[in-house]
Amino acid sequence: MRGTKPPGRETWVRTGCPYCGVGCGLSVGVVGGAVAKVKGDPAHPSSRGEVCMKAVCLPATVHSEGRARQAFVRAHAAAPFAALAPEAAIAHAARELRRILRERGPEAVAFYGSGQLTTEDYYALVKLAKGCLGTDHVDTNSRLCMASAVAGYKASFGADAPPGSYADVDQAEVFLILGANVADCHPILFRRIEKRLAAARDAVRVIVVDPRRTETADLAHAHLPIRPGTDVALLNAMLRVAIHEGHVDEDFVATRCEGFAAVREAVEPWTPDAAAELCGVPARAIADAARVFARARRAMVLWSMGVNQSSHGTAKNHAILNLCLATGHVGRPGSGPLSLTGQPNAMGGREVGGLAGLLPGHRHVECARDREVVARHWGVPAERLPRRAGRTASEIFAGLEDGSVRAVWILASNPAASMPDLERARRALRRAELVVVQDAYFPTDTSELAHVFLPAAAWPEKDGSMTNSERVVTLLRRVVDPPGAARPDWEIVAALAAELGFGAHFAWGSAAEVFDEFRRLTAGTTCDLSGITHARLAQGPLQWPCPHESHPGSATRYAERFATPSGRARFVPAHPRPAAEPPTRDFPLVLTTGRLKPHWHTRTRTRWSKNLEGRAPEPLLEIHPVDARRAGVVDGGFAEVRSRRGEVVVQVRVTSEIAEGTVFLPFHWTRRDGPEKPANNLTHGALDPVSKQPELKHSAVRVRALPLPRELA
Q: Would you say residue 109 lies in a domain?
């Protein structure tokens, strides 16, 4: 549906949700050209009619005063913005980009995307950057979320993405949940787990590994509040128990896997007692958890940022997949590893090559054959494509800081609030010659540092598609018109391409045409979407692999063969490593950060819903009573939290729901709420050596009491 309907007539349109990676289906009610209501789509396979509070509150965010309606340009970040027609603003940005390309080459230009872009938006960006401009400095905020899971999947299975589906939840007997507060961050999937427990009663067990006692942990039969960062020791000990007590699926390991001997040797020192000393939980609890998981006929592992956001997140993922492979819990209904994607289209971004080092169809820039295939499809010389992997998210900002990267184009993201070590990230943006921000909301922390701002269409104002955590592709529909001069991101990219002289390669008339070009490029790859079209998606979501237009989609992968050269899954030894910044006498506590149920990322969208804001109006520091006494802070009082990089002033919640020695802060508040509010003032930028994902979940801090603000005293 395009355009608007006469006032008073209510029209309902099926679409997808723009929030988390569960990828729920929504039904949107439109009245008088405005989004009036949102409810769940009962026909959507991933959510089956369920809907969370954030989705219900979407109407207030769509038509808010925070929406971007016009383009702005200024000479430098300290100058006032001048409103400009979008075409003129794009032309100005193109001139500056062309100058930097001429003077410094493609290595000086970077693009920073988002898991909230549609697949069509992402594809247009990748084609321009990698196929026309020749830069692989293309990365995304998904690097901060899922990169370690991707590295784990590729190492063990030979390809990205999980092997199973949400449908496995309905058959699983055991759920091992690590580093994921599913109740808050993936609430509709959590309800599915709750329903499985209610239906099966005593036949299902839930084990939660998390330093906080969350709503997810309240559901568990066993909660292991390990010290942050000690997951590998825990998982190695669980695998050792399975080996020593005869719970390894010897037939599966012998016929479907390789490399088990090295992993057997690697886990041998990790007795439950040895792991207990490091993890801070009883050895018996570790051994019991191992037995419950390994003995189950059908068991799933679910994990998210608590595992991935680590300087050894890839090793944690190896340990998870080793446990699944050894016990045969892969490629079977009701079983398997299922990483929970944080954003609605982080998966789609990887499919199109939206991360450094990738090309569409899970191809790689460093593979000559892959470059030739993609270049031929794009109609550009293969020599134009980059030949080596470019800078990842944190490395882009390091390049801006040292001057080797001079321009960055940022789409649908707010890195001036979401990157670790915020002051360093902001300093990097201030040093850039050109910062272009393309967003549906204005202002943001990042737009305040931009030279050019371009208004983008939001979730219900453009057609497109997104792929959720279980590889299900959903069609998003344009149900209302974008405000002012805003337009879909892919159209903005196409307009930039035209200004740069590449318009003939971007002559699409619709998002469906963009997707059609992309999906044909995936034929025969490990993410084959070639059988999916917008026309088919209009009838309902589809799950890849989907290799032809009569194919129904695939719920389970690797039933017979893995994507490795040998066809066997690979065991990869995982070794516990200390965190990059362990606690010390001066900084004795470990800070971990995360989400709250009412909010989303840096609240760029959710801050415009009074309902959601009212449910969690301020951040709270969660601290254990023992640590609170040592720091002299009290429940309801205020504290300064300080790391080696900065400080936060925050109200305190004293609770035994968090492990002693650990404190928790939500990361949704930004400098727009006050310079002392962002949790990322405190975090550091240490990277996993393989995935290049930053360690946002483990920073050393100290806490001291502050007097109550005058208005509260």
A: yes
